[in-house]
């Protein structure tokens, strides 16, 4: 999967379509997928998610946050490409024991391999996130290596690759210029081990982008930059010009990889999305603008200034459904990234593979009986009894 191509800086000729508002979105790039997480108090049944959301909307690939037996069973026979995640809490035991890694592969991959089209095993959930400190770093590469050995032993390594999701804060610095990026000093030791491991197995580098967090931190950059809108003054970085956050983020990673000696490593984007609630500028309208701009941008396959004509080989939109139990360590908006509400109703339009047609919603959703009206009435009565009479 490694590809060699020139990295000399040059200013790209920006296509006219970048600036035109089109009524019908182009088809998504072949390698666009969606993230599917399970941190919800009232999740839709996995079979219903596949039957009502993924298949009717022609979603070509999906990334599971964890190895859900229900989801893997539902995905069998669909020909939807699957990336399955290994949660951070499993990194230490998987790093410590080849037997544990072999058991995990057997239970979560081999058992389903005849029907599920596995593409990647994503080891860890943003283990390099700045907020995690050194909590997971010592175990990431060993866990990935043990999973790789287990795949080799099961004769499955030719069918799927092992990747390690890397948060964009592992390489971005305070500058807005991609040419100034480098891996954080505290992750350098891990990268010295991870990058050769990925290269030796022809695995890509998976990066996790968080555009709204970047927008909150970079007060001097307009929202248009994040929404793929026309900018009168693109950001200049030497001979290169950047008119959107996505290309700048990818080239910042290219710069960091180049400085580490891996300039030709393929890149996939494990997450890129925009929330619809929980923060200023977190709305359905803005999320639709970001997602549509991203899908259209990827469909043009124009690449970036440092890698013209070579876009990330895959990009996973974040995310399929709202998750009301998701961690809010970054912000409360982390629970509102869904293209669909928790019960499978589309919040806005984006082309997941269905083209210009409206997204299909989940049908015949079973809701729990409501008890809140009775409980609220009892609370009112109790408060009235406790409050002194007027």
Automatic annotation (TrEMBL):
Entry's Gene Ontology BP terms: carbohydrate metabolic process
Keyword terms of this UniProt record: Glycosidase, Hydrolase, Signal
Signal peptide: 1-31
Keyword Hydrolase: yes
GO molecular function ontology, one term from the record: hydrolase activity, hydrolyzing O-glycosyl compounds
PANTHER family: GLUCAN ENDO-1,3-BETA-GLUCOSIDASE BG1-RELATED-RELATED
Protein family membership: Belongs to the glycosyl hydrolase 17 family.
Protein's UniProt name: Glucan endo-1,3-beta-D-glucosidase
Naturally occurring in which organism (per UniProt): Triticum aestivum
């Amino acid at each position: 999967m490694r590809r060699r191509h020139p990295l000399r800086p040059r200013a790209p000729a920006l296509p006219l379509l970048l600036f035109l508002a089109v009524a019908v979105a182009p088809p998504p790039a072949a390698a666009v997928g969606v993230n599917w997480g399970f941190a919800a108090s009232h999740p839709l049944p996995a079979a219903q998610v596949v039957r009502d959301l993924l298949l009717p909307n022609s979603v070509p690939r999906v990334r599971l946050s964890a190895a859900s037996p229900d989801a893997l069973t539902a995905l069998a026979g669909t020909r939807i490409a699957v990336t399955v995640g290994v949660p951070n809490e499993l990194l230490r035991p998987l790093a410590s024991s080849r037997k544990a890694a072999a058991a995990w592969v057997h239970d979560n991959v081999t058992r389903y391999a005849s029907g599920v089209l596995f593409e990647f095993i994503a080891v860890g959930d943003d283990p390099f996130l700045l907020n995690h400190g050194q909590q997971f770093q010592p175990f990431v590469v060993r866990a990935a290596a043990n999973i790789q050995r287990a795949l080799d032993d099961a004769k499955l390594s030719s069918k799927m690759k092992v990747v390690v999701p890397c948060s964009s804060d592992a390489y971005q610095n305070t500058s807005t210029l991609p040419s100034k990026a480098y891996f954080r000093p505290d992750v350098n030791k891990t990268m010295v081990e991870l990058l050769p491991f990925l290269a030796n197995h022809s695995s890509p580098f998976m990066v996790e982008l968080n555009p709204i967090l970047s927008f909150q931190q970079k007060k001097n950059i307009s929202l248009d930059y994040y929404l793929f809108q026309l900018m009168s003054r693109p950001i200049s970085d030497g001979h290169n010009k950047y008119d959107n956050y996505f290309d700048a983020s990818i080239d910042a990673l290219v710069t960091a990889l180049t400085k580490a000696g891996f300039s030709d490593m393929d890149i996939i984007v494990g997450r890129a999305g925009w929330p619809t609630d929980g923060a200023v500028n977190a709305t359905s309208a803005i999320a639709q603008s970001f997602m549509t701009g991203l899908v259209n941008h990827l469909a043009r396959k124009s690449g970036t200034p440092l890698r013209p004509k070579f876009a990330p080989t895959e990009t996973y939109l974040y995310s399929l459904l709202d998750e009301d139990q998701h961690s809010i360590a970054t912000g409360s908006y982390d629970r509102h990234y869904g293209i669909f509400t928790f019960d499978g109703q589309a919040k806005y339009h984006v082309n997941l593979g269905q083209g210009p047609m409206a997204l299909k919603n989940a049908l015949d959703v079973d809701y729990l009986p409501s008890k809140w009206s009775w409980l609220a009435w009892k609370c009112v009565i109790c408060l009235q009894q406790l409050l002194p009479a007027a």
